[in-house]
């Protein structure tokens, strides 16, 4: 186990109209599929609560010291598997599952407005399409200013950019949980290949930029 690289993948609990959260269903399917013999996969269901995220995310990074953390969330607007390039610090007004929102409306006091992942999501997307493994995949730079964006920014901040966020559509619109699980497997595998290839160094200076 000591020689295995560790990857954390998280999904969210139900909220609002999402009585079954497709993100957690997809992550559970990924857990069943695995990421190969050389990767230790750790999965976690994240509460849709700002204060819980503030506590949980740093603890996950500290305990596991992962090579990469990939967060998965549901978007009712998504028609494809959507790779988010960056997280945003401000604009969090929408109430969470505990009817709470941060008084400051931000993730990290005095943190940069935007933090970009060290991963080049455009490149990940292009390779997945080229290989035909996951054809319905796209890239976004706006994760929505709710718990998805809040979680992503927090993880990028704590993990020095070694995090990713993937938005998935609700179940059956059009993907099943099995299809989403296989798509996640392909996405995370491609992200790990990019990290190992050293293609991320040029993006490190993007921290704090819009």
TrEMBL record:
Keywords tagged on the record: Cytoplasm, Hydrolase, Protease, Thiol protease
Residue stretches in coiled coil: none
Entry GO terms, CC: cytosol
Alphabetized InterPro entries for the sequence: Peptidase_C15 (IPR000816), Peptidase_C15-like (IPR016125), Peptidase_C15-like_sf (IPR036440)
Taxonomic source organism: Knipowitschia caucasica (Caucasian dwarf goby)
Listed CDD domains: Peptidase_C15 (cd00501)
Family statement: Belongs to the peptidase C15 family.
One Pfam match: Peptidase_C15
Annotated GO biological process: proteolysis
Recorded superkingdom: Eukaryota
Protein name, as recorded: Pyroglutamyl-peptidase I
